[in-house]
Amino acid sequence: MSLPRAPRLGVDVGAVRVGLAASDPDGLVATPVATLAPDDVAAVVAEVRERGAGVVYVGLPRHLSGAEGAATQAARRYAVVLAQQVAPVEVRLVDERMSTVVATAALRAAGRPGRRQRAVVDQAAAVVILQGALDAERTAGGRVGERVAQDEKNAEA
């Protein structure tokens, strides 16, 4: 199955900040876009519309064991609100275990110290989330992750 040509967005939902990343229309490379306030869903909606995004991947922060906690539930709630506002564009939840750790290590390796990292670590985590989804799309030949229904219940993948 061939996916339609359209940019994809990646979202890293945090309690303090939300990171946003976008891909090229062919879904090859994820790049950072912005760091937003957690209640600024309108900015994500505007990016979806402006870029003509085909799908939005929201990171689902599970524990290393796979269990879900408070952060997972917050990400699910955020994804439902987002899905309702960007319909008919799909919103999908993808596992993001370790994305912030990977992003922080990459920023440190690039010479960005801790205090200067905070402003961009959420964007970098969104890039990690989106790039993982893009790579998984190529392997699967289609969309990946858990589809979020717009009626406040999660749909099947």
Features:
single chain, 157 residues, alpha/beta, Nucleotidyltransferase, domain 5, 5 helices, 6 strands, globular
Characterize the structure shown.
- The chain has a single domain, classed as YqgF/RNase H-like domain (Nucleotidyltransferase, domain 5).
- The two termini are 16 Å apart.
- The relative contact order is 0.22.
- By secondary structure, the chain is α/β, with parallel strands linked by helices.
- It has helices at residues 41-51, 70-86, 99-109, 114-117, 121-140; strands at 8-13, 18-23, 30-36, 55-60, 90-95, 146-147.
Q: Please indicate the count of domains.
A: 1
Describe the main β-sheet briefly. Answer: 6 strands, mixed
* Strand content range: 15-25%
CATH class: Alpha Beta
Q: Briefly note the structural class of the backbone.
A: alpha/beta
| Overall pLDDT level | 87
- What is the CATH H-level superfamily? YqgF/RNase H-like domain
Tell me the CATH architecture. 2-Layer Sandwich
Morphology: globular
Residues in helices, as a percent range:
40-55%
CATH topology: Nucleotidyltransferase, domain 5
Number of helices: 5
* Unreliable segments of 5+ consecutive residues: 153-157
Oligomeric state as shown: single chain
How big is the Rg?
14 Å
How do the strands line up in the largest sheet? Answer: 3-2-1-4-5-6
Query: How many strands in all?
Result: 6
